[in-house]
Queue: 2 jobs
Job 1
Amino acid sequence: MRRVVLNEGADLEGFRTAARRLVAEGVPPEETVWSSDGALPLFGLAPAAEPVSPLRLPRAAAEHIETVVRHRDSERFALLYQFVWRVLHGERRLLEVPSDPLVHRLERMARSVRRDIHKMHAFLRFRRDEEATDERFVAWFEPEHFILEAAAPFFVERFRALRWAILTPLGSAHWDGVALTFGPAADRSQAPGKDAWEDSWRGYYESVFNPARINARAMRAEMPKKYWRNLPEATAIPHLVRTARSRVTEMLEQEATMPAKRKPEAALDAMRAPAITSLKQLNKLLMASDPLVPGATQAVPGEGPEDAEIVFVGEQPGDQEDRQGRPFVGPAGQLFDRALAEAGLNREEVYVTNAVKHFKFEMRGKRRIHQKPTAGEVKHYRWWLEKELELIKPKLVVALGGTAVLAMTGKSIPIIRARGFARFPDGYDGYITVHPSYLLRLPDEAAKAAAYRQFVSDLEAIRTIAADHPRGRVRAPAAAE
Amino acid sequence: MNHELMDERLARKLCILADAAKYDASCASSGAPKRAADAQGLGSTAHGICHAYTPDGRCVSLLKILLTNYCLYDCAYCVNRRSSNVRRARFSVEEVVELTIAFYKRNYIEGLFLSSGIIRSPDHTMEQLIQVARTLRRDRGFRGYIHLKTIPDASPWLIEQAGLWADRLSINIELSTEASLRKLAPDKNSAAIDAAMSQIRDRISEAKAERRSFSPAGQSTQVIIGADEATDEAVLRRTGRLYDEFGLKRVYYSAFSPIPAASAQLPLKAPPLTRENRLYQADWLLRFYGFSVDEIMAGGADGMLDLEVDPKLAWALKNRHRFPVDVNRADREMLLRVPGLGKRAVDKIIQARRHRTLSLDDLARLTTGLKRGRPFLVAAGHRPTRLLDRLDLRQSLVEPARQLRLL
Ligand code: SF4
């Protein structure tokens, strides 16, 4: 019979060393006795002549062992050695047989350990250490198993910016903002006895309880009584349970209440009134909104008279627009103004806006390089465009370039095919043409000039169509996009 | 406001506004992407931790409160309707932020579930809710869970903004038929509810495709059970559509429960908790077990589920010709239909039977529902043929009613 004595607690290292040597010497589980009272420094085997090689276990099995050693059951090491022995003697896939009695028992132990870790994450309560000069928190917790080391990293992830300590009868954990260290066992008196927020937390707990649904058994199944003494809210439980029935009876016996007061007609009318009745209001809301993709300096609203006959829709603000907060002021905007004038239109009389209201870019060195908006972004901003059109009720809506076409039709259509007069699905008539920035990008001067002439003639056509076109929607909006 | 000082006035408000929010059943904090605090930030998201349980057996995971319980609407089932005589209170944005942070630091909660009565206007109300979420996230570096109730009548733009800061958005449909909605919630509008839910669905799927974050834990809703005449079948058909058409993550069922200051329109009675429980079970069958609404309803009668046995057992009792099922051979789909075998048990059976031929003793180690399953399955050394023909089979499987009814 070989007697192995390991340290108290989750002595994984000790178990590993012992198991390696026992396996190497071919000692079967029936010939071993394990204990972990920690009386002897390591284990009662003669010192090894040379280091023994590690056990070759499947990963899942090794992980399982790491969990089960944390269990309080004093038989854990003997059971784990049986498991190791069988895995190494012809049953490599033993863990895959959950119906095997040993696997089943180990699995139940592992589940109990995992549950204890989970409950520690859930039921641990920090109290502020009023004696510390800076903000520091201390918790007292009594785990069932040896789980402190396994449970502590969760609190680091969550409370990295705070300083805290967790004290337990099986050891303590300390976080100073940089490193997690483990220390000796502690007792309750070392933790603060109260916290200024506990009364309101208990008040909250009492208020969310619905006496008509009382089911104390379900509560105890998930929050066993052994945890109650360290939960500040648990002192409320007996009273809540005792009074539940009478509270419900009282509610049921009460007469139905008469509708209180008069009807708040004025407030209701005010509520039902449309929230936004002018471009000014609309834009105020826009300016207060956050960009979908972070980075832009400010939102860039549309610009032009509220009774404009023609609305031009571009893509999204560029670098200049983002700085100035106005649409079409960069190089493409200047080209656009020139073309408008040549076509006999006045920038002051038309309304210009963008499908997307915030600049999106990528930094390249010191330069902010424009990035095309995605379809999702275009949809995200569509509501603004709809509102602008509703308030302005223009005769024509001009989509400049692919993104504007996407915003107006919900589809990506090549400009070459769609160029010209357009009936948009939401009921407006309009026109599709290129975006002025396209003209700037053409490499060849002759092509550039030709494209510019074509753009101007589009604008002339727009002016002519607009002359005797009715205002606003000319059809009911199509149902689907 | 003093950051670390909870004054009495605030504590009183907290009680009123928590009490006003407790009839909302959704409390889960799951489904958010994994997030850890950085050196300055606070909080992380884990898999739906319940930090406490109240004596009704329900989980406390989030600080679930209303921003205010003043409301201009008049929904008959709601304790906060404008004609109710409850005490009213109102938090400032700053107060909710401080409460959330102080509770979070003490490990009381996973985050915030914020809703509100409609004050001034739907847009105004929604803006306030967003303001809280934005302050927490942007100004205070809060990385815990945020669930915002969405006001369906608010401008679509505000819903878009809400999704930038919240982990989950939800709109409660509350009543499963339009007729009930007209009668009991006259200010609400089912077209607006549908429109808002499909907007959220679209934004969520676009954001996923474009790798942005928009309400990453999806959207959910709640249906009240027992306030109107709707049958279980009507509720489940509506639920089925919500999952299919709107891609909802969860539908919560909430048994209509006595409230203080009740309306004459809705006489109070004990909450139908068993019915609520059966609907949750049916909901699982719909989502994870491959059942259709028709199949589930075939287990009941007159459009209502069987209250005495769970819906899977009810279906099996009426389809005895499909049993017994051989656990050592049947495919996964059929194993999932055996009463008492849950998804996890089925997975384990499939894994274990590759190595062993399973007996009843083996099964007992793989599931806790063997008592219900036994008459319906074949295992090594076990054949239940005679059992299946017994007329009193159903009676022998009915669980004695447990402490579900108080009144
Ligand atoms: S809108 Fe209806 S359900 Fe919501 S708080 Fe007001 S009355 Fe209650």
Note: The radius of gyration of chain B is 23 Å.
Job 2
Amino acid sequence: MYDVVIIGAGVSGSAIARELSRYKVNVLVLEKNEDVCSGTSKANSGIVHAGHDATPGSLMAKLNVEGSQMMEELSKELDFAYERNGSMILCFDKKDFNKLQDLYDNGIKNGVKNMEIIYKDEIKKLEPNLTDNVYAALYSKDGGIVDPFGLNIAMAENAATNGVKFEFNAPVVKIEKGNGYWAIDTDKEIIKTKCIVNAAGVFADTIHNMVSKDKMEIIPRKGEYYLLDKSIGKFTNATIFQLPTAYGKGILITPTAHGNMLIGPTANDIPDKEGTNTTREGLDEVALKSMVSSEIVPLRKVITSFAGLRAHLKSHDFVIEEVEGCDGFFDAAGIESPGLTSSPAIGKMVGEMIQKKLHLEENPEFDGKRKDILNPKNLTEEEYEELIKEKPAYGHVICRCERVTEGEILDAIHRPLGAKSLDGIKRRTRAGSGRCQAGFCSPRVMEILSRELNIDQSEITKSGGDSKIIFGTDKDAYRRAN
Amino acid sequence: MRECDLVIIGGGPAGLAAAISAFDSGIKDILILERDKELGGILNQCIHNGFGLHTFKEELTGPEYASRFIDKVLERKIEYKLGTMVIDISKDKEVVAINPEEGLFHIKAKAVILAMGCRERSRGALNIPGYRPAGIFSAGTAQRLVNMEGYLPGREVVILGSGDIGLIMARRMTYEGAKVKVVAELMPYSGGLKRNIVQCLDDYDIPLKLSHTVIDIQGKERVTGVTIAEVDNTGKPIKGTEETYSCDTLLLSVGLIPENELSEMAGVELGITSGPIVNESLETNVPGIFACGNVLHVHDLVDYVSEEAGFAGKSAAHFIEDQKKFEDKGIEIQINTGDKVRYTVPKTVHPDIMEDEITVRLRTTNVFKNVYLNCYAGDKRIVHRKRPVIAPGEMENFQLKKEDIKDLKAEEIITVAFEEE
Ligand SMILES: Cc1cc2nc3c(=O)[nH]c(=O)nc-3n(C[C@H](O)[C@H](O)[C@H](O)COP(=O)(O)OP(=O)(O)OC[C@H]3O[C@@H](n4cnc5c(N)ncnc54)[C@H](O)[C@@H]3O)c2cc1C
Ligand SMILES: Cc1cc2nc3c(=O)[nH]c(=O)nc-3n(C[C@H](O)[C@H](O)[C@H](O)COP(=O)(O)OP(=O)(O)OC[C@H]3O[C@@H](n4cnc5c(N)ncnc54)[C@H](O)[C@@H]3O)c2cc1C
């Protein structure tokens, strides 16, 4: 019997897992996909919101500001990419200025620091690529960007190192109440636990509704993006938002923690909880609206597009609580934006709730530090030379666009909760995420995965499940026919 | 730091031919750096025949063609390093490379030849909406999987792009037991060689749909279907023409991009081909850095790559032997692209130092019939040749004679155009 089973290994589930690993407690994370960070946490803007957006007094406002303030230290502890690049909300029309002022006031109420309203000249000085049509901006120096994969993977890895178990390809299909425990059915086995944390993202309603009479409905709200080639450099330094206008919510332009530029997202409610396809209309909207902030966004440098789904609740607030009438069942639901920013605070909050519930004692062996995959690009030439001498695999470049070596890929495979698929490698090392989009490196990465995991190449997937890369060997159809 | 007369980056057909020719022009201290496991470049995965018709008057496969050049490199004992990735070049021709054996090392070269080839455009660059499942390959990646590793990437295939790689892969996938359902091409004409359309599609009854593109990709884990639609003359899909093919694989053969990130690090200026802007010696704007092959502009026939690279090798040798001559080149004449011409290589000539005759290569902007290739030196027409059919997929060339342009003044230009008469 487990003390706690967490459903979902996105940023929410992983943050909660890590917080729980501070205690002496038996925790299992169940994830339906083959890897951590494969739901909404892998497809978002990667922004650490300062916190002026959320309604004062809401849980969202509280956790956003807390999470944002925890992020820098966490990034040092867990060694993931985070940068405080600042954010601007642009106002294009004097008539809308009061809305900007409202956001500033919101920010003050929410406890956001280092905000300031600036005007055209100063804006253009800071961000010369922006349009001349800008009037004013709410400039938040505490706004930041984070590597969402890095954050998610780091928290999960650290939880695993501190004793949390993870099971992948384990979709929860049914939950039943036993006598003093919950019985979770994953299609493969029945798992018993004292407590459950529901951190299933857009599927949190499905999980919630398995146990509660009070039904919940989560609406997937799709956001589509364009990602631009690194070669254009920092088109903007800060994250550039647009003030919502009569024409709807704006489109942002931001550098990512990896040095690309990202533009998006749209916001459309859709029926399909796995509908992460991009659409012509959506992408055209991104392109068109981005031009409001800058007429010279280098759209010709698009290297890929993607979409993510916000787990939207009508109440538009996070629901983090023990569900009434369901002793030991906790929801972490409705975790839409700014869920990434808030995740450290969500982890802390749920961790404390469960500590109280189960009267947990501290785990004296807890080690909150984690080192990321060694990136030789961050070494001096002398250090790099030494490294290759010691481990020649670091001299073997596999991904040419992002210059990722075999050494890094081996590290990604063999560390706790290691990568098992091409996407797993990509999210951990960036191999395949550059301008050629894995055309060059995928056969080479497949070879390494096959060798290291001791599986046939035909078993290798892009992202688990049926996403196999190859279907057999040359002419096998003829051989089978004969 | 190691010093070297000539460093060649890339050991494909361009790098090999450049090395051989530089050697034969008197430069012995040459180093070829190649990131792959073997010499030969993209030819190693082109196991179909049709290579070398111009050079050897025989139909060779890609590896056979490459091996003729590799043999010559070996005979001459030209040094090469495999598994070695060049990661930086500076303006003063310091090359930085890494490999597992030697680690990170610097080489100071007197001249550098860029021969890095090109890469394929990806789906992202094309902006095709839809899901992002497994089963979407660039044609070259699929070619490598099939021809070098023996794996079949899929069984039911749609191909976007009718350039040569797309056509060749349509046939190859068919050979290997897959069903190719359709080849869609955005343009109203194929980007590939005529003979490839006949031998790779027609012979296997594979339909080619011109003026069509992919507008949606279905399948959450693996591709389950692809929707194509006809496009109007601005390239926009026409409503009501959508057709969905069930398939497990989409191959993209949608263009090659010269791979010039390294060139840019050295301050090399790029032009409309996405490759370096070069002069009559195939020298870039950075003195002593030369370029040839697909890194300079995408070729359809490897014979022309070898020829061009041979010339680059010779030029580099001259540079190393007589830098003075290259420093004072005399007046520079621009080659302008006139009507129906997309680009020319080279882009400038220095009549004072040029050879008696050089090859100018060019591509047109569209398909045209019964035109003349005309070249003017100032106002004077110096080349006039009938071309029954020209297409963007087939590179054109002509010889530019020193004698015809030696009297041009600095402000005069050379113009190349396809004209009605
Ligand atoms: C377009 C967009 C932009 C955003 N931008 C930002 C931003 O800039 N800043 C910010 O702070 N936030 C942003 N967010 C919000 C943020 O991405 C999310 O709040 C956060 O990633 C949610 O994490 P999660 O762990 O709750 O959910 P998820 O990452 O979706 O994780 C849920 C996990 O549960 C698993 N699961 C589901 N059902 C089951 C089951 N039955 N059994 C087992 N496992 C199951 C899923 O596979 C998944 O891995 C954005 C969101 C979107 C969509
Ligand atoms: C599918 C296909 C079919 C073709 N069919 C025909 C045909 O039928 N007939 C015909 O004549 N031609 C054909 N061609 C064209 C011919 O193969 C090419 O024109 C030729 O290979 C180009 O030569 P290259 O040396 O410029 O480039 P490549 O062959 O691409 O060689 C470049 C080399 O540089 C290396 N390199 C790149 N960057 C670095 C770096 N940073 N450090 C070290 N090394 C590096 C690469 O690994 C590669 O080996 C075909 C090409 C393809 C792809």
Note: Residues 132 and 156 of chain B are 17 Å apart (CA to CA).
